[in-house]
């Protein structure tokens, strides 16, 4: 498998506090990866660096077939280059139907004017139906998004990101506030999504991470503490110390 993203020797400080400390990380094309670690470990900052929201003080972030540096690119250029990110804040238009939200997300990939002057083709409608199926909302296509459950809104957001067909998808704590059944469905969506793109999932819930059934990176104090299967990393003494206290 070829490397899609390579982060090496990245550090960033906020007011003298090293939130990310000489961090190195690689992910291959169509790889699913879980990133875990205690609160304050630097997980969100790590995603901020990849997406260009935060610029590191040192290190390299190299992406794609042409090995471009993401550090020189703006957030919007990085998104255009195929890096999608799911934020915690909702980006769903609550007054619009599930169908319309997905359709708008699909059109957004063709530039802002396409959203204004769109002509709905059968192909687009089929694509929206496919997306709804991927996120388990086929039965809710014509419901107002504001009426969806918390979990369903999160899935819709994932669907809106998938509509833009990112090559690397980053999701930060997607299962927060979900019921156990919703969590299960979310792991299914992410595993399926990772068949056609790389997906990085930050998540606290170990049961969720176990269901993802993928390689795990443990972050602690801004560095990688351990990496490997969940069974492998949870046997690591330093990981046990960090999670269970000293
Ligand atoms: N913009 C910022 N300014 C100052 N400190 C920050 C900023 N962003 C994050 N931090 C600090 O960096 C550390 C890592 O935060 P974060 O990446 O949010 O951790 P995690 O997502 O793993 O919980 C924390 O101690 C946090 O307080
Ligand atoms: Mg966080």
Automatic annotation (TrEMBL):
SMART domains, per the entry: AAA
NCBIfam families, per the entry: urea_trans_UrtD
CDD domains the UniProt entry points to: ABC_Mj1267_LivG_branched (cd03219)
ABC transporter domain: residues covered: 5-246
Coiled coil: none
Protein name stated in the entry: Urea ABC transporter ATP-binding protein UrtD
Gene Ontology molecular function terms on file: ATP binding; ATP hydrolysis activity
GO cellular component, one term: plasma membrane
Keywords: ATP-binding, Nucleotide-binding, Transport
């Amino acid at each position: 498998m070829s490397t899609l993203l390579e982060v090496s020797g990245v550090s960033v400080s906020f007011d003298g506090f090293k939130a990310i400390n000489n961090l190195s990380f690689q992910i291959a094309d169509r790889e699913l990866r879980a990133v875990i670690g205690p609160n304050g470990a630097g997980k969100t900052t790590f995603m901020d660096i990849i997406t260009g929201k935060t610029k590191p003080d040192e290190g390299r972030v190299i992406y794609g077939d042409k090995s471009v540096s993401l550090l020189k690119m703006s957030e919007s250029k990085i998104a255009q280059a195929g890096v999608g990110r799911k934020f915690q804040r909702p980006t769903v238009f609550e007054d619009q139907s599930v169908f319309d939200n997905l359709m708008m997300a699909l059109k957004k990939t063709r530039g802002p004017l396409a959203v204004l002057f769109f002509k709905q083709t059968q192909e687009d409608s089929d694509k929206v139906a496919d997306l709804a199926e991927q996120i388990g909302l086929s039965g809710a296509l014509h419901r107002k998004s504001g009426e969806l459950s918390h979990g369903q809104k999160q899935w819709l957001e994932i669907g809106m990101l998938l509509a833009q067909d990112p090559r690397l998808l980053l999701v930060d704590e997607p299962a927060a506030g979900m019921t156990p059944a919703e969590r299960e469905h979310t792991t299914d969506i992410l595993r399926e999504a990772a068949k056609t793109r790389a997906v990085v999932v930050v998540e606290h819930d170990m049961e969720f991470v176990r269901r993802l059934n993928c390689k795990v990176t443990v972050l602690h104090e801004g560095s990688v503490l351990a990496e490997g299967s969940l069974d492998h990393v949870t046997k690591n003494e330093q990981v046990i110390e960090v999670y269970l206290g000293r």
